């Protein structure tokens, strides 16, 4: 195995908007804008008309159901601009390691009647990223340990095999299509993140997520510019043989409308969209709050995904405070990663202090553990000490919740109106996308 630096990680430099070089991407909209469907469709048509795609095969890398954006609008615009021009058009759902989407889910997600894909999108093939199937992948090569050390700021020194869904490699062009939000692992999501971890193999998923965990979610989330994790992702993406393009959008959280859309290389389109996301998806408070009730939408089906209600609120909770994830519909910790119930949720230092015990497990699972448990410390004599309490008010049995090292609250006892009436509590509806920070 490679080595880990146990020194305290420092966040990537927060690049202010004035310091960011203007990205070489076309963009419409902005923080104060809500785009019409006609504007979006015209923008997509114009941008794709300007790219030499005739006679090429194109793989669209699209989000799964846990990401908010008007996907039927975007996919219709892209399909309309490419149908008849390209030899083959495939949509690959970037599951990462989420559960596969079934026919009914995909139909709702893509905006066509169940069984009616060909009627809405003639000639389009839709694939789930089958991350559980080894034959899904092709290796693009490796990032050497020395280079990983450079990109990670010395936090990790391990060679990593860069495996990617072969559908991307077997098309001439890979076009990323999806939203940008503040993100707990990389700073802001989108762009090349749709390749890694979106349709990538376990090795680089584990490495990149553990790098984010070493820096910590609270430090990296909403960080502008190229974070160490983004740098690692970009390094891997440069190995993709297909031509890479991206349509990155900024969704109005809770409505599905768009503030902005940007087109260009994944690096440039992402940078243009991230500028807007930083202005629209971040709320600032003047003082910390004692308690947060994060009301989780039903699109988050387990704690693996619903944990975003903690990530996005941890920065504004006072020391000794509490985040309550209210999601009565959630009935399991992680549908695709049941081992989290055995590992439990712990702070970063719990793992780094006992690395020989944990290094053989999936680092992505360890990263998720630290992201939800938040800031804390560990020593063998006193055990773990946490900055905030994490409470689940879900359909998960109490013994499972407490066994995973989290606090339990019966969801039947939760009255959001009563929580809202408490001056020490902030209730956040539709939690999971907007980041809250202190000024």
Query: Class by helix and strand content?
Result: alpha/beta
Q: Say what the CATH topology of the largest domain is.
A: Rossmann fold
Q: What is the count of β-strands?
A: 22
- The average pLDDT is 92
Number of helices: 18
Task: Report the uncertain regions.
Answer: 1-23
State the shape.
Answer: globular
Could you name the CATH homologous superfamily of the largest domain?
A: LarA, N-terminal domain
Biggest sheet layout = 7 strands, mixed
For the record, the CATH architecture of the largest domain stands as: 3-Layer(aba) Sandwich
Q: What is the CATH level 1 assignment of the largest domain?
A: Alpha Beta
Number of domains: 2
First-to-last CA distance: 41 Å
> Which band does the percent of strand residues land in?
25-35%
Roughly how many Å is the radius of gyration? Answer: 21 Å
Sheet with the most strands: spatial strand order:
2-13-12-9-3-4-5
The portion of residues assigned to helices is: 25-40%
């Amino acid at each position: 195995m490679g080595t880990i630096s146990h020194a305290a990680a420092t966040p990537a430099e927060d690049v202010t908007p004035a310091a960011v070089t203007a990205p070489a991407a076309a963009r419409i909209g902005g923080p104060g804008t809500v785009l019409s469907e006609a504007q979006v469709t015209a923008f997509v048509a114009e941008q794709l008309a300007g790219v030499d795609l005739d006679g090429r095969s194109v793989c669209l890398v699209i989000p799964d159901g846990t990401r908010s954006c008007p996907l039927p609008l975007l996919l219709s615009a892209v399909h309309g601009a490419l149908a008849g021009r390209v030899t083959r058009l495939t949509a690959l759902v970037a599951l990462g390691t989420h559960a596969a989407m079934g026919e009914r889910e995909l139909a709702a997600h893509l905006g066509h009647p169940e069984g009616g894909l060909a009627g809405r999108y003639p000639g389009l093939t839709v694939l789930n990223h089958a991350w559980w199937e080894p034959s899904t992948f092709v290796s693009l090569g490796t990032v050497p340990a020395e280079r990983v050390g450079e990109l990670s700021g010395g936090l990790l020194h391990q060679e990593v095999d860069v495996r990617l869904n072969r559908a991307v490699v077997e098309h001439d062009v890979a076009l990323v299509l999806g939203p940008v939000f503040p993100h707990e692992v990389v700073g802001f999501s989108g762009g090349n993140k749709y390749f890694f971890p979106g349709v990538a193999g376990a090795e680089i998923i584990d490495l990149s997520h553990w790098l984010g965990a070493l820096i910590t979610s609270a430090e990296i989330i909403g960080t502008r510019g190229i974070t160490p994790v983004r740098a690692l992702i970009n390094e891997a993406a440069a190995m993709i043989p297909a031509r890479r393009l991206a349509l990155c959008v900024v969704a109005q959280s809770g409505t599905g409308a768009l503030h902005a859309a940007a087109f260009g290389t994944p690096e440039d389109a992402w940078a243009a969209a991230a500028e807007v996301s930083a202005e629209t998806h971040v709320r600032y408070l003047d003082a910390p709050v004692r308690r947060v009730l994060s009301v989780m939408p039903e699109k988050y089906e387990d704690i693996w995904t619903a944990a975003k209600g903690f990530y996005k609120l941890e920065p504004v909770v006072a020391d000794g405070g509490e985040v309550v994830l209210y999601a009565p519909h959630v009935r399991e910790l992680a549908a695709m990663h049941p081992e989290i119930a055995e590992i439990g949720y712990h702070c970063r230092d719990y793992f780094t202090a006992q690395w020989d015990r944990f290094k053989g497990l999936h680092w992505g699972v360890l990263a998720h553990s630290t992201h939800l448990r938040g800031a804390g410390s560990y020593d063998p004599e006193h055990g773990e000490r946490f900055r905030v309490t994490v409470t689940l008010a879900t359909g998960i049995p109490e013994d499972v919740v407490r066994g995973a090292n989290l606090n339990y609250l019966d969801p039947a006892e939760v009255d959001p109106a009563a929580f809202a009436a408490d001056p020490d509590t902030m209730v956040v509806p539709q939690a999971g996308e907007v980041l809250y920070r202190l000024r």
